Amino acid sequence: MLIDLAEERGGGQMDVRFGEPLKCHFPLFRGLKAFSFPTMGCIYMIMWFGAVGIALGYRFRLSCSAYILPYWYIFLLDKPSWNNHSYLFGLVGAMLLFTQANHYCALDKYLNPNLPSTVPYWNYFLIKFQFFILYMYAGLKKFSPEWLAGYAMSSLSHHWVLRPFCWFLSYEMVDLLIVHWFAAIFDFSIAFFMTCELTRVWATPFMLLFHLMNSRLFVIGMFPWVCLAQVPMFYGCDWPRKIARLNCKHLSFCIPRPEIEGKSRNAEYKKYSTKSSMDGKVPGNSSMHCLKLEKYQTGNMNLFQKCRALFILFYCCLQLFLPYSHFITQGYNNWTNGLYGYSWDMMVHSYETLEVQVKIVDNLNQQEHYMDPYAFTEYDRWTKYADMAKQYAQCIQKNLHRLYFKKSNAIPLKSLNISIYFDVWCSMNGRLMQRVFDPRVDLVTAEWSPLKRTAWSLPLLDEFKHIRPKLLTISNEVYNWNNATDVLFVADYPSLTLKNMLPPDIINTTLTILEGNVRYAEMEFNESYFLTAGKSVTISGGVEYRVTTVGLTPAIYMITYTNKTILEDILNVGDEDNAPRRPWLPLLQEFTARLENYKRFLQHMGNCVLYLMYGVPIPLQLREKHINLT
Questions:
Q1: Which of 14, 168, 510, 626 has its CA 20 to 30 A from that of 82?
Q2: Do 545 and 442 reside in the same domain of the chain?
Q3: Longest dimension (CA), the chain
Q4: Strand ordering across the sheet containing 527-531
Q5: Annotated catalytic residue: which of 23, 109, 141, 142?
Q6: Highest mean pLDDT among 39-48, 295-304, 344-353, 517-526
Q7: Final residue of a domain: which of 414, 431, 458?
Q8: Which domain holds residue 328?
Q9: Is residue 103 domain-shared with residue 135, that is, in the same domain?
């Protein structure tokens, strides 16, 4: 987590995330706001010291609190940064707060030898249960027609990690059999194999290789390394003692001191004979002591132990229920169920965004203006979730009000009575490009509730998913024309209009209707055509064109084009041998980049402390953005 703070927690880009006064955040709870940049730097510093304390086992409760409270605050502050493993890190950090992990191989134990030398078994159970759920549910989520058909993670077979499989399988079969089928079976079964003592040793190499491959295939921060560090948890809980007694006998804080252990062994047996099985503090060296607890138990559970047992049971039931609780929080359901990040649906959905438009309408004179969609945020997950789209629209309105009162030249508004409309075109898992939100709805005044379905969030056009093989065939035909040609497949709802203008480098553009009826119009020439399935028309360059879906059913059409810039690059290609080649395993480059990022993180924290203590100005490297309305 010390590494994670600078990377996925955003410590290295702290100035970009919290140094801009107009930056939009997407908190889970209304009223949760970011502090000023210097204060946020100090919050990160508290979290950093907490992570150091946890790693060393020093003042463990205080360190856990110092880490986990800021962690959940930063986590809940920005929903677009959520992912499953960030949620996992927060859960494990919260669990550690209630454990006795500092009773062994920790500075607390070394400084206070009177601490018990064992960790209660329920501490192990909770963390193992959490990772068991992680693997099992990740597999269950993949046992869906969408994943098993091979549409979620395409083209991974070209990565060098999977190249050995291509020696005896085609690229398409590697994507299907290895990336999709094997991953689903592995995720679902590996936790069972690691839990069973007979199969654990055989499953461990697969577990290690799987996470090492993931660290190369995906940019997912510390997640593979956290899972690798957790692998020994599936083994007997006394394995560190066995290793310590063999190799670390000179480390007194690794092994309980003989004089203390010997004098107190009988007392410990008497002490634990009245404890509950949930405590599990049984001295000894065998892993069987972790399970055979009843031998030392004769008393009944007290009230505290009963409450603890009920809390553990409640937590386990909650973790089993949450990934399938989306029927309650329907406001967060869009093309997928719920907010991404707590359902263990890892890599199940992939998106391709074609276009994002943010339209500002001055209601006083009905003038339309367009702005950079990412003027106030670097995230793009708001383009796919209605709750975040609503939050972003409200944040844009608030920022435009601020700039209006500052008389900024970038804001040519005549009044503060504005409406904001989003038009987002996106594709999920190789489907057709379609709209995510209704572009006719003003999101400033639109209704949204966490418990009700969002009316202005357009549903996924699943009735057309059966034509994906046909689309793949057409795509391959277009790609064979030359390396500069491409094709775009679009589906649109009745009565909605696609407005666009071709950039100068796009040539030889043709619109072809696959299903349904549309009306095509070019505004400059004042011409319009009614097109049915099978009909085509050439799109003129440099002219605004409109495609309106006519009828009661959605229409499907494709746009083929040639990229003139790519075509010229192909014709003017030079000596390929002189082109720089990317290393296949860029470990040194990655380490250097991470080291530089960590230096920035430490500098940010130091600058914030100096500013708060002595008023030293903070150098900021802000993100380039374009707020001008056009």
A1: 626
A2: no
A3: 98
A4: 497-501, 544-550, 517-522, 527-531
A5: 142
A6: 39-48
A7: 458
A8: 121-247+311-345
A9: no
